[in-house]
Amino acid sequence: MSVTSKLYEGKAKILYTTDVPEILLADFKDDATAFNAQKRGSISNKGAINCSISSKIFQQLEQKGIITHYVDNPKPNQMRVKAVKIFPLEVVVRNIAAGSLCKQTGLGLGTVLKQPLVEFYYKNDELGDPLLTPERLLLLELATQEQVEQIIHLTLRINEFLKDFFRKCSIILVDFKLEFGLDSQQQIVLADEISPDTCRLWDTATNDPKNRVLDKDRFRQDLGNVENAYQEVLERVLKTLETDV
């Protein structure tokens, strides 16, 4: 299988077509962005770390019956994936109050939510990726009512698995972002990545609001040691998988 041309370049990945039409190649970049790309930088080895974490988690989810776009890893920073039509939606799951939820609601950082909060954001940089009400989502025809219900169901299943998995890694899953797409059979498929770029992850070993951060908030907030935090997550993921075997 060989690469034929660049299909798309985003903030964190480059997608290439291959000589197999239903398979794409995702190249994970070391580039880092925050605040809708208003802040830019680079995190050494981020691409390979995120690719590895995402691949391991996708494989675990597949074993739980969650269909993903994952195929395999030809290189440490590359993932072959099934070609899917991505919904222009970011699906955010919140277990603990942080980030924009605190700013927009006044909830204190670290407030544990009584139940997971699932939110939809419109993937549109020009509009600033706005939060959507269910009615606006349907008005814009970004997905059907049935698809929205399926996505919420899948999202909550993924959340339960991830909370338990990261707990075994001595990590608290605060919140995270998912993306979904439709495959050639019109099945809803989990896509994109699951990594410190897309999850808020707190170390259970400390309550210090800065030292506990193991995700991209270290870059957003200029906390330093960003690569070390990402590497720590990878090492814990690998160790947990070895222990579970």
UniProtKB/TrEMBL annotation:
Which is one GO molecular function term here? phosphoribosylaminoimidazolesuccinocarboxamide synthase activity
* Biological processes annotated in GO: 'de novo' IMP biosynthetic process; cobalamin biosynthetic process
Q: Which residues form the signal peptide?
A: none
* InterPro entries membership: SAICAR_synt/ADE2_N, SAICAR_synt_PurC, SAICAR_synth, SAICAR_synthetase, SAICAR_synthetase_CS
Q: Where does this protein act, in terms of pathway?
A: Purine metabolism; IMP biosynthesis via de novo pathway; 5-amino-1-(5-phospho-D-ribosyl)imidazole-4-carboxamide from 5-amino-1-(5-phospho-D-ribosyl)imidazole-4-carboxylate: step 1/2
Q: Which domain of life is it from?
A: Bacteria
Q: Could you say which EC number(s) this protein's record lists?
A: 6.3.2.6
Keyword annotations for this protein? ATP-binding, Ligase, Nucleotide-binding, Purine biosynthesis
A Pfam match: SAICAR_synt
Q: Which SUPFAM superfamilies match?
A: SAICAR synthase-like
Give the reaction(s) catalysed.
5-amino-1-(5-phospho-D-ribosyl)imidazole-4-carboxylate + L-aspartate + ATP = (2S)-2-[5-amino-1-(5-phospho-beta-D-ribosyl)imidazole-4-carboxamido]succinate + ADP + phosphate + 2 H(+)
Q: Where is the SAICAR synthetase/ADE2 N-terminal domain?
A: 6-236
Q: Which PANTHER family match?
A: MULTIFUNCTIONAL PROTEIN ADE2, SI:DKEY-6E2.2
Which family does this protein fall into? Belongs to the SAICAR synthetase family.
Q: What protein is this chain from?
A: Phosphoribosylaminoimidazole-succinocarboxamide synthase
- Whose protein is this, by species? Plectonema cf. radiosum LEGE 06105
Originating gene: purC
